[in-house]
Amino acid sequence: MSLSNALIDPSELAAPEPLRLTPVAPAYARYRMLSLSLRWLVAATLIWAAVSEVARNEPMLALWPLAVTALAVLHFVCAWREARSRAWGLRDHDLLYASGLIQRRLTILPCNRIQHVETASGPLERKFGLLRVTCFTAGGLSADLVIRGLAATDAERVRQYLLGRIHDLDPEALPPKQAEHEQDPDPATS
Amino acid sequence: MISGEWQRLSPWALVYLFLRGTVGIVRQNLPVLFGAGAGAAFLDAIGLREIFMLVGALLAISLLVSLLQHRRFKFRIDGDLLLVRKGIFEQSELKVRSAQIQQVLVEAPWHLRLFGLVRFSVDTPGGAATEVELPGIRPDMASDLRRALESTDRAGGSGHRPPLQAALHQASATDLILHGLANNYAWVALAALMPLLHRLSQGQQERIAALDLPTWFDTLLEHPLLATSIALAAILVALMVASVVIAVLRFHDFRLERDDRSATTPRFRQTSGWASRREQILNGARLQVVEHVQTPIGRLLGRSHLLCRQTGNVQIEQDPNGQMFLIPGLQAGSCERLLAALWPDRVPAEVMEQVHPHYRRINFLRLNIMAAVLLAIAAWQTGEPRWLLPMLGLAPLFALLAHLRWLAVGYSVREGWLQIRFGLIGRRTSTFPAANVQRIQVRQNWFQRRRHVADLVLTLATGPITVPCLPENRAWTICEDVLERIEQPALEADVLDRIKQPAWEAGA
User: Fold this and answer.
1) B437: which residues sit within 8 A by CB, 6+ positions away?
2) Are B86 and B131 in contact (CB under 8 A)?
3) What is the reported pLDDT for B322?
4) Which residue of B has its CA nearest to A137?
5) Domain housing A156
6) For chain A, what is the domain count?
7) Which of B439, B444, B449 sits opposite A113 (nearest CB)?
8) Domain boundaries, chain B
9) Do residue B461 and residue A107 have CB atoms under 8 angstroms apart?
10) ipTM more than 0.90?
């Protein structure tokens, strides 16, 4: 019997399977635009109140509306693209959430680390049919995960699934029937 | 006996509660009194008799509150629960399971020792502050309470109690002096006092000038450089002495021992303190991260310390209340020995891996950009372009710094144990089991995506730890490895469920 030990071309090796995440609801980008508009409106009003008087004597400062508009447009473009790039995924044992535009972040939260789950929404989010899902862990604020931009139905389904997982993983949450079943050495006799 | 009936605080604890309450009132109202001068103006306006009446009323209120607090404060052990009832207007009952307790602290500060009392407190995961505090109970009752909480966690209840093991670590006087010198306890106290010192120093120059001072002082004032040097040296010496004194007071007669009397979880007991004697008990199962801290001066003196962090011990540099489990005055080699004792199943790192050399380049660029911006501002403000010349000399220095910083960062992943090292001058090495990680994040900025490197952020119950600039594939491998360790119990439970499942159901 001859031993075959041929060289393998690295380019022919199977590429690792990419994570297939689900994009957040399309309404999230529109929600971000509206919430940003409100913030910029407040910021522009404050800047106008602070600068308008001084700008009369300083010709360079008279260009402030142009500078504010340019900054706002840049912020809107980045926020729109960032909102469109957000995605989430649910695997057998963990929850994934990708966010960020310039700095991409993929956060992985194992299901057995989740202590409880909460859904919340502000008035604007409700207008767009969105819900935030917050997963709390023992690590406090730095270890919690907030998934923004989920459609209300998706968010409720995720919450229910995660609550079910927490219940399954909690040894103290076993239903009495299952506990009895565990004590029975021979299930066939029961 | 602690179990069964409700217990009360010692009658002497009333004095302690009264004093603590009064000090609390004074501390809260002192800024109002002296802050803007309004309080002083008010006191001037009302006269001496009214002031005494006001003070008397406040003391009477404080006494009444302390009496009610003392009367309503009850505690007892019920099975594996520690129950505490307290509250004046709103009664609350707190229940803490013994299995949830991660640290027990028994303190005997001098003001409680006067009355022959100790303070007993318990920490549980998730609580930023101390969860349960029994302010003023007798030492024998504290021992009974501690034993009762331990016995619920012990197989065989009140059966055979093996003795404590020999000391794992004892800090000598030299260790404590060097620990005090290496750590900046006095700097922290000085930083807290700076606003007060600044206020006191205002307007003192004229007063000093008006005083009849010796001639050598006048000579010093004529030579500001010499005077400043002497003043700085004096402050430095005073701070060092203060640091040493604080360290000796806090860790006098330090002894760490392992307590194997609990069948389920190992416990570690440390006793220390001179004026305030304290006994701290750490539940080994609740230990999240152990940090080996080498301060810059500590590295010179050959001393370091270990910080045992549990859930809720967020990563703060200082521990003003002494809640953290700190092992001081370690010499070379002691760290590994203690880590092996704290985590017997730990697999030590053989070699620390380096992060991607791209980290060095990022550091070099950051330093150059920062210096260039600062020098450009200086050149713009002064109108002299020669301010930009130092950049030529700084670039090689920054290259060396970036290289040393890159060398200082190291990590090791071995059989489910992680070790991450940071710090160019002072050094901090965190050791933890992968199964303790709560959340993982892989971060890549635009620059890193082009170079196929990524930052890995491992968030524990004590806070996040970042491994910067790992090769992308390595980051994902570690991520998968850590996830596997975290999810292992869940996977095992799934397999067990399948094994327990009847054959006909499994087939279906």
Assistant:
1) B458, B459, B460, B482, B485, B486
2) no
3) 59
4) B438
5) 86-173
6) 2
7) B439
8) 7-151, 165-202+212-257+283-344, 353-498
9) no
10) no
